[in-house]
Amino acid sequence: MLVVGAGPAGMECAIVLAKHGFRRVHLVDAADEMGGHVRWVRRLPGLGEWGRVVDWRVVQIAKAKAIERFPGVRLGPAGVLEYGVELVVVATGSRWAGDGLNAFSHEPIAGADPSLPHVLTPEQVMLEGKRPPGRRVVVQDCEGYYVAAGIAELLASEGYEVEIVTGIASVAEVANATLEGPSIRAQLARVGVTWRVDAMLDEIRSDGVCGADHYGRRFERETDGVVLVTQRRSDDALYRALVADPAALATAGVAGVYRIGDCAAPRLIADSVFDGHRLAREIDGPHPAIPLPHLRERAVLEPSV
Ligand SMILES: Cc1cc2nc3c(=O)[nH]c(=O)nc-3n(C[C@H](O)[C@H](O)[C@H](O)COP(=O)(O)OP(=O)(O)OC[C@H]3O[C@@H](n4cnc5c(N)ncnc54)[C@H](O)[C@@H]3O)c2cc1C
Questions:
Q1: Complete domains list, the chain, with CATH
Q2: Pocket test for ligand 1, best of 4, 37, 47, 52 (most atoms within 8 A of CB)
Q3: Burial 70-98 (b: 16+ CB within 10 A, else e)
């Protein structure tokens, strides 16, 4: 059994497969450390607590004799086919869109290209240490949770002058549901971050940005860089390449290829973990890729017949 990707979904899947009786589960990840996105999310200001998602599973994996870890290995389709396994779970996660694709316009933002020095993705900021070429930064947010706020606070603490432009009605609006919204905004205000709500950039240049709010009022701003927290895209190239060639799978003796977590569709951590858990529990079923229906243990209403 091969699990490609040791983010929350792949880690959980490997643990449950081992509990389920699989005697050899190989957990392979391109990174040296397990945890996927959570490796860097936990380093954002105030977000260390999220590390528990990974830390608990690191211990469980270390205890599970059936699981063997292979860090620092990036597998392509050929590597998977040569691996010599019967079942493959692809848990390769997702990445932030570098072209500004977002749920408001459903299109990229003109001028958004993360190969340019003044356009940055969250992964570039957190994993590669990329920084804007000057002190003024705009963070374009369309996620509404803590990523834009976390990156804005981080950059402000490093001395950058930061404005969040959010397509949502409030900064960190999703965090209102967990009662964290007011404290996140208070902390941003304390460190000098400003914001513009209900607004989207529609052009990014090396010396500034322009955009409009949802009511048609246009704005322009001089800036040295833009961080794009617009939307994530599944990293599903490996899965697609494998399932596109059933003959090669048959020749290699691979009986099943499944995808879980953000690789299937970007989602919350809890949903990624559930996806990995569910697949491992149902792996012996006739159609493991299709979740079994929820069965009520106790009927709430008596049938009327
Ligand atoms: C910035 C950010 C904020 C988030 N906020 C929240 C939140 O507030 N609450 C919440 O519940 N969820 C949140 N999420 C979502 C959550 O982090 C993800 O849903 C979760 O990490 C997905 O887990 P995963 O295992 O599917 O993928 P990932 O965590 O992306 O892990 C994928 C792993 O696969 C590895 N990999 C990729 N390709 C290969 C390959 N070819 N060979 C070997 N290894 C490979 C990668 O190195 C990586 O370790 C957030 C995500 C991000 C990025």
A1: 2-93+235-281 (3.40.50.720), 97-231 (3.50.50.60)
A2: 37
A3: eeeeebebeebbebebebbbbbbbbbbbb
